[in-house]
What we know:
This is Immunity protein 63 domain-containing protein. This protein is of the alpha+beta class and 164 residues long. It folds into 2 domains: 2-95, no CATH class; 97-160, no CATH class. It is 40% helix and 25% strand. The strands form 2 sheets. It has a 6-stranded antiparallel β-sheet. β4 (41-51) and β5 (54-60) form a beta hairpin. The mean pLDDT is 91.
Amino acid sequence: MNEFNVETHKIKLTGKIKNQLDKSLIYIIENIGLPKKIVYSKINFIDPIIEESIFCFGEATHLSDMKFGIELRTNRIITYGGYRENSFYSIINSNLDKLLLCSFIYDFVIRRLILSESFGAYYENCNYEKYASLLKEMIFDIDKEAAEKGAWASLINEMSIGAI
């Protein structure tokens, strides 16, 4: 895991929660761990709970009402929160395996390509467009839905215009 510096947090699952998760999810959560950072957000891990068919495992460190979870019916990785008319819901990845792969890809693009200036300096000659295009292509190959909408799509869009 640490070859690409994607830090993970392992959670020991027990009882009722463990009985509601797929065996593959349990294995990943307990043995590999969940990324400590997902797209833009660092995760403040909480004692896992089930909220309305969502396995909630953390909150964003920068927004107290932004939660991270796994939908139990679909295994989608999501962010959600807010209150009634100001509530939000966004898909991050279609499953946990794809979240880990996309996190590794993102780290690879940042640490190995952008920092080494493989396509040239990030802000020179609009090179950020090349990096964003490559990231989108690589994430698209792993998880089409994630590359086209949600948190990864927002990050890629902001990269493509040089905002980040």
